[in-house]
Amino acid sequence: MDLTSDNPFWATRNGLVATYPPLRNDASCEVVVVGAGITGALVAQRLASDGHGVIVIDRRDICTGSTSASTALLQYEIDIPLVELTDIIGREKAELAYRISHESIDDLTKLVLSINADCGLQRKTSIYLADDRKSAKLLADEARARRSIGLDVSYHNEKAVQSDFGLNGVAALSTQQAASCDPYRLAHALLHDATKRGADVYTSRGEE
Length: 208
Known about the structure:
The chain is α/β, with parallel strands linked by helices. The chain has two domains: 1-71 and 182-208, FAD/NAD(P)-binding domain; 73-181, no CATH class. It has seven helices and seven strands; from the N terminus they run H-E-H-E-E-H-H-E-H-E-H-E-H-E. The protein has helices at residues 9-14, 38-49, 82-89, 91-114, 133-148, 158-165, 183-196; strands spanning 31-34, 54-58, 73-75, 122-130, 154-156, 171-180, 200-203. Strands 3, 4, 5 and 6 form a four-stranded antiparallel sheet that branches. It has a three-stranded parallel sheet with strand order 1-2-7, covered by helices on one side. Helix 2 (38-49) links the parallel strand 1 and strand 2 (54-58). The longest helix has 24 residues, at 91-114. The chain is elongated and about 65 Å long. The relative contact order is 0.24.
């Protein structure tokens, strides 16, 4: 399977949603957001909604960087498991990081609804699969750690993995605290909302 192409999926699927002008003259603001992908759009919308003067700049068209090739998966799991993160930064900080990340799925859902973003947001079941006994033991430890702080997670043994999900694996973790959306359209919706709140958005190849 070829996982790369010269045509990023979301930009190809959606086409040109909106354009913004280049920055031709001096401008002033409280905050400059560099980059108009999904991260920059989230930051700009939040700052604008809090009443700050915001300018967003990007050297390309909107969302034509990594956002246009995003997997579109929204998961609360951090790259490092909670058990391992606890060993690195301590229990209090690790648990706080996971709680905030867990809450972010609900927060983003509320934001999408509040700005009426047409981005195909759907709640999903997320599955973390182990394919050997050692990994299964680690998943069991991870499940206990997450449940101890009230996070949504279920542990499935080998039989349950097959019966519940039709997958081949020794064990799995599952959670309902996950979602997917079109990040390209969401970023455009966030920037549109930010401009309604007074933000300015500029690209180097925008409208003349």
